[in-house]
Amino acid sequence: MVSQILQDAINDQINNEFYASYLYLSMSVYCEKRNLSGLAGWLKMQSAEETGHGMKLFDFLMDCDGTVVLKGIAQPPTQFDSILSLFEQACEHEKKVTTLINELYELAIQEKAFAVQTHLQWFVTEQVEEEKTSSDIVAKLKLIGDDVASLLALDRELGSRTSAE
Ligand code: FEO
After folding, report:
1. What is the pTM of this model?
2. How many domains does one find in the chain?
3. Residue 79 sits in which domain range?
4. Which atom of ligand 1 is nearest to the CA of 46?
């Protein structure tokens, strides 16, 4: 049985993952409204991926005979200064999530919850990928600058994403 303090922390992380899903979904609206449907589609898939992360923790906690407590999801921002700023915020958010996952892992060590540590290892590895993906897009957008043709090429490239992984 997972300790109550760890159950509370896992429930917080479920909420964080669902917030991330909301955030990416809100970002996708911003892009869609600017006719960047490739970026919007990519962000929608990212949103679905975050829901998957939340559900992975949800299912794990239930499998451990814990109690899932779903809390309210905060409203994400709806306005962004630019596409670059939007992806910079996505990148910053992923860094924050990495810190939260690391703190959760640290708590699992303190609580000697070995199964939780093993489960969280997937998230630790996943965050490396999540940070890299968002920082690569930021780097490309910085190179693109005000070049609309290049932005449309990136829109096509990201629009080719076919799965939420
Ligand atoms: Fe659930 Fe983007 O990390």
Report:
1. 0.95
2. 1
3. 4-159
4. 2
